[in-house]
Amino acid sequence: MKHNQRLQRAIIEVVENQIEANDPPEIKQTLARLVSEGFSIQAGKELIGNVVVVEVFEVLKEGRPFDLDRYVAALHRLPELPPLPTAAPAT
């Protein structure tokens, strides 16, 4: 399995774990809304996974705690994807 496939599977696993734990509750609501808008369950999970990736990147890049409000706001904006974070220039 390629590295990017492992990473994609790991991200989907994070999404599925959040759905199962209902934490945050907005994740189940977002998936249900996306499905009602015509997305498949898998496509909905992948859209949510984009939000997970951006939030994780921001936490790591900025060195600050997870921001639930920012995460939930990004879930509410789906299927509009969050802007891709930019990495710091290499030195």
Provide a quick synopsis of the model:
Helix content is 69%, strand content 0%. Helix 2 crosses helix 3 and helix 3 runs antiparallel to helix 4.
Write the layout of secondary structure elements.
Layout: H1 3-21, H2 25-36, H3 41-62, H4 68-77
Describe what this molecule looks like in 3D.
It is a single chain. The chain has 91 residues and is mainly alpha-helical. It has one domain. 69% of the residues lie in helices and 0% in strands. It has four helices and no strands. Helix 1 packs across helix 3 and helix 2 crosses helix 3. It is globular and about 35 Å long. The model has no long low-confidence stretch (mean pLDDT 90).
Keywords for this entry:
69% helix; globular; mainly alpha; 91 residues
Helix tally equals 4
Largest sheet: none
Low-confidence stretches: none
SSE ordering: HHHH
Derived from helix and strand composition plus strand pairing, the structural class reads mainly alpha
Strand content: under 5%
How far from one another are the termini? Answer: 32 Å
The value of Rg in angstroms is 13 Å
Secondary structure tally: strands: 0
How many structural domains? 1
Q: What general outline do the C-alpha atoms trace? A: globular
Oligomeric nature of the chains: single chain
